[in-house]
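User: Structure please.
Assistant: Input sequence and predicted structure:
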Amino acid sequence: MAREALALTRVNAFYGDSHVLHDVSFRLGEGRVLALLGRNGAGKSTCISAISGLLPHRSGSIEIFGIPVSRLAPEAIARHGLGLVPQGRRVFASLSVRENLTVAARGGGPWDLAAAYAAFPRLQERQRQAAGSLSGGEQQMLAIARALMTNPRLLLLDEPSEGLAPQLVAEVGRVLQRLRQDGLSIVLVEQNTRLALGVADEVVTLKSGRVAYAGPAEQIKGDELFLTQHLGVY
């Protein structure tokens, strides 16, 4: 029986007095990909922040591979196998590409410099270049590779295709497919519905901070009415 990589139970989170997440509950099985979808402002990034410990939630529970992490600091949660690709990339601009990768390196898994460069050849070409001088697409590749260098068991990606040209979106998709085939557990927040549904096993949609749908991705693929009502796309 497969383990649960991630379990949220009745999670409530606030920004100041603003109640953003309302009793959010969902599960992700080990080796599965979950697309967390919703319109802008639905609470997707807040959910990612709550899981990673960047935003303490006020009530409810979060477990990673059966371990309660609700009261842990972000670095402690990361030690339990969580990797994060944050929205906006947040690379270390003054460090070189190679330094961005090595500063995040954690042994005990398949991802090292050689593996990162094999997955993202342009990063090897620019390994001595300051990360801040890279294009937006190259910075996104670096952010993904940096997270993989921690050898996570659970990877959170917050809008990895945001602002990318179609060719680079396709490259992100290929990387996600490879990670899926490798059995990595993934939560993907993504506005590009085609990309998200192309790799996801499960889908959770949020509406005004509440779970509006949780179920198989196959069930909503091609459902134009659902996609229009829940995501504003068709």
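Residues 152 and 217 are 24 Å apart (CA to CA).
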